[in-house]
Amino acid sequence: MPHAAPAARARVLAPGVIACAVVGAAATFLSEHYGAPVMLFALLLGMAMNFLSAEGPCAPGIEFSAKALLRLGIALLGLRITLAQVQALGWGPVLFILGAVALTIACAMLAARLLGFQPLFGLLTGGATAICGASAALALSAALPTHPGKDRATLFTVIGVSALSTLAMVLYPMVVHALGLSDRAAGMFLGGTIHDVAQVVGAGYSISTPAGDTATLVKLLRVATLLPVILFTSLLTRSRQDAAAHGPRPPLLPWFAVAFAVLVAVNSTGWIPRPVQAAGNDLSRWLLVASIAGIGMKTQLRELVAVGLKPVLLMLGETLFLALLTLACLRWLA
Fold this sequence. Notes:
With 334 residues, the chain is an all-alpha fold. The protein has 16 helices and no strands. It starts with a helix and ends with a helix.
């Protein structure tokens, strides 16, 4: 029977996938009722159910959720962006965002090296800070080579960037009011500095509708830089593997990055109906939440506690660098 193998595969994966989906649903419920980032709840709940990833019926499905569902969720992020949104901002903000993302990642890689970490860890944390928080951390982690400490680094980055994004959502509107920024300048600042999309929306519209609209557009432009950063990550990984002269070379662009770019292009044509866009965005969010629950299940809390103070200082420094850089450029932007 031709469908026997896929059916058998589905039966093997089902227990773990269902476990990740249940944790994701619980995390979504808690997020909606208590206002904390859903990714953070998914991580913590997943880590509390770490025993499921040991030998047993759930292990294959958890591994599948942490990898395959993650990549599919990242690809569907392309439904959030159109080229018209980029054009609406004008060249000034576009050039600023490109420069800010590049500078933040470069400084993060340098700082990581000075603190004794691999530069790729700085690329992971800097990309999460500069682009779109937890989603960027997951996307960049998927593009990085397999390493024994990769899941731990990814988990730490997601937790750190989620906590800092929530803190920024509370503090940055106060900074906006203290500096007396206009609605456009406030939107530029909030959209250019806060890590996660949801927190940008919450902070922007807490000031005014024009500020919220501008913040959302600027944030989506930052999300659009995910593709070139993934390409840079793939090129860097390939060059390092060439230098090491062992192991298979990774693809120039992972399939999920190509799918992301294709969806942005198709979405820009206006052919995709709004209900389909909304459904794709919802599915992307669910897949990412389920995948981060799976990553949480694969990691033990003591592994995160062992990272020490230096990674915390690295992520805090990246966040402050991006905020100060944006404030310094606001006069030119607005």
